[in-house]
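Q: Protein A?
A:
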Amino acid sequence: MRERQSLDDGITSVKRLSQALADNTDLIEMGEEEGDADIVAEAETAIRSLSGEIKARQIETLLSGEADANDTYLEVHAGAGGTESQDWASMLLRMYTRWAERRRFKVEVLEVHDGEEAGIKSATVMIKGHNAYGWLKTESGVHRLVRISPYDSNARRHTSFASVWVYPVIDDSIDIDVSESDVRIDTYRASGSGGQHINTTDSAVRITHLATGIAVACQAERSQHKNKAKAWEMLRSRLYEEELKKREAAASATEAAKTEIGWGHQIRSYVLQPYQLVKDLRTGVESTSPSDVLDGDLDDFMEASLSQRIEGSAGQPVADID
């Protein structure tokens, strides 16, 4: 039903926009025949006004992948550098949380490992909302921060790194077969806040897939059984995401030629000092207001990276109303 509604909305929208374009084109032709400049100008203005809605519909067509409509998991990991990178990781987590809140998505914290002095070593959250994975899937990679460190008494400029990993939540219609003999399951005490029970029992669970080395962990629940069930869901989602990447690489020579996202492969830089600039190194999209970006204003970056992915796989750009 969700797929049907999405298709119905898309078809209705295209028909309406096509009709509006045809009607105003006819008006222009009529105005030119009658020498009525006012009619021509009015119709041209109406056509230009359609560009905003057409752009929004174009962006929606970018979110048509197999799992794009699904909820998503998002992991943040601090890089080397101790407190600096851990503080940067917490800033990234807040940025994506604020972005999700702007879209009225629900954010569920599954695991957080706090830093020794400040920030976080790592965190995993689930973001629930229509097209959550589709919007966030191009955010995987290494994010770099340049700023005057608030933790440096000499006020020196520091560069910090943190990585983001995004993979879709899969539903019951997708079957990923993984047996317990294929994994290693570890239990441990949860860290951070959570009350006496969560900190004094081995309720947290980590599952490692032996063949791929993929590891997931969950400590959101007090019950080890519930954490284990959630970790199994996360593992299946990670394996499914790996399969999606393989399919993309096989279907597109451009994608196959890309370097695999890993540590040291930056996708975006956030400079707070000596100047203010956020720049996506893949698309060239920039913002001179890092405070807005860090407060969740990410749509321009996401739209550009999604468009680039579609252009690369299709071999042609998305149509431009101009």
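Q: Protein B?
A:
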Amino acid sequence: MLNRKTEKILTRCIKENKENVYRLAYSYVKNKEDALDIVQDSIYKAMTRMDLLKDHDAVKSWFYRIVVNTSLDFLRRNKKVQTMEPEIIETYSPAVEDSYTDMDLKRTLEELPAKYRSVIVLRYFEDMKINEVAEVLNENTNTIKTRLYQALQLLRVKLNDEALKEIK
């Protein structure tokens, strides 16, 4: 009975957060197919390990942690990272309006180390509270606060540098 209830709660969480989870995975791997694979692997892991979920109120952060860890595992397994020029990407992708209004911010965010980027993405793009981010990343709340502060400082410095380059 308990397992059935857990399965329903987990299924509802996955359905309600599918776009967010995909976006989270994509923020790590920068590839549509890989992000979809990570989401699929994460769902499988969550469904097969739902007996490990102790607190039903924490199902969202528990599932997000699985997605983050699966993304990091994927990156470790596939060390060979190839970047593609934006012009080349545009020739392969359908003409869709970019949802990012500030390309400098997007590019600068991608340049941040993963530990800072994760905190920013979870806090501001996934609208999680500091304690939820800490739970997802399996870190102390104070560590997350420090990383968030440092990440925002790095972003500010990098964006200011970009602005100065444009002025010159």
